[in-house]
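Hi C.,

You asked whether I'd gotten around to modeling the 275-residue construct. I have! Everything is below, sequence then structure, no commentary in between.
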Amino acid sequence: MKSEEIKALFAQFEQASAEVEGVECWSARELQNLLGYSQWRRFAETIDRAKEACRNAGENVAYHFADVGKTIAMPKGAERQVDEVLLTRYACYLIAQNGDSRKEQIAFAQNYFAVQTRRAEIIEQRILDYERVKARAKLAETEKILSGVLYERGIDNQGFAIIRSKGDRALFRLDTNMLKRRIGAPENRPVADFLPTISIKAKDLAAEMTSVNVQSKDLKGQQPIETEHVDNNSAVRKMLLERGIVPEDLPPAEDIKKVERKLKSDEKKALKNKK
């Protein structure tokens, strides 16, 4: 396929897309023409095969293949209702995969939607990584504030470490060192650097609660503050368990420092490509 043909097809596929209720969609009737199908009946068979592939992948068929009606004009001012389907990008990808790749249009569509679908997956993963990095930074700030609050009430760094470890035991049913061994975190690194986002946020919520309650109750000394922090972590754990989440059973996440480096590297590449 020549470069000019590829560029022309790319423009046609881009122009055919539309946004419906915030979701990028293609009309099946338009895609039929783009893929070189002269008969709707033949194209509908390809759609059915794509639906089956979607179902086998565990995806929501009704979401990716939305059946809608379409009215077309007939001679002498008459109108006729015909079948129409709104297709997500993923649905289009499955249709292309179930089409005849000997057709140039379908061969192009297979690659076009595969790349675009992969791009969406990359964006989704980047958002998840960004949210985790943001949650980790928030926890670090919360613990810094809590450390300051406790220092004013006679708790030194060693005392704070003990309180935090007992909070981890209440939240995860494991103390900090045992938790590190459980998830494979190095001894010299904070355990939160290897926790999934929800666990980081759970620790952050418990620490926020301790910071607020220590001040509002005017708690002082190791034992009362330790009890408060344990109670708060136990309360957060209870909430997670009620929603079917067992924090110590969640798989460890990638080293947060690696995730940060990856995000920064992607940003540099994006800026370089814009020049």
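If it helps when you're writing up: The two ends are 30 Å apart (CA to CA).

Thanks,
B.
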